[in-house]
Amino acid sequence: MQELNQKIALVTGASRGIGKGIAIALAKSGAFVYITGRTKTEGEGITRLSGSISRTEAEILSIGGKCKAIRCDHTNDLEVHKVFQQIFAEQDQLDILVNSVWGGYEHFNDGTEFWLEKGFWTSPLSRWDKMFSAGVRAAYVASSHAARKMIEQQSGIIFNLSYWASQRNDMGVAYGVAKAATDKMTAAMAHELRPHNIPVICLYPGLVRTEAVLNAQDHFDLSNAESPEFVGRVISELVNDPNIMNKTGRVLIAAAQAIEYGVKDIDGRQARPLTREEA
Description:
This protein is an alpha/beta fold. Helix content is about 40%, strand content about 10%.
């Protein structure tokens, strides 16, 4: 699949997890993918999880894809600015922004695993700050840089990753509020970018077989889990949808979009879309 030839993409938070999977999927579709993350080389990250932007870059290059890794802490506005400066200097173009960077689950450093916490009063206050600074705000800042270039070139698309926690009350206060903020931010961004014909989409993945989930798989039912690349396959289809403006500002379930576009996971399976009650 090379349907994204000539497209320039930026995937934030691609050291591991969904971000890494999306970057690999977009590269397989032919895009030149820039990736960011705080972990430049294996083992230097603040979590005990494997993965780094150098490793993601190497994996993409090994399959013939085009990728460049840029070390960036998305809570540092100057570092973010330099990322976009570099992309625009090298490409003078940005077609796809995927805001995948996320903070707050460094639970090995700042408290118990989130699934063992019994209430917001038992979790570290830093979790709220990280979910907003390295999550919601990080997406806002990156989108503001991307939007300027996309308006100038009169094309482009922005994706924000969110989850059903935004619509439930039993998945953690900080997590739920941060995801609800992401949903609302997407809708408001889409409203302001609509006159420029630039869509902004909010995507809900299902349960994804990330490094963190696999490390804690005893706590999860993985029978309907998605690969990290699955959402990236869906994004590739959305980018090429000529009627994508009909979906701007909306929350889309990645698995439901996969069925609509005829996209299957890397193992050939068709993930079943989760409902709010099942998530």
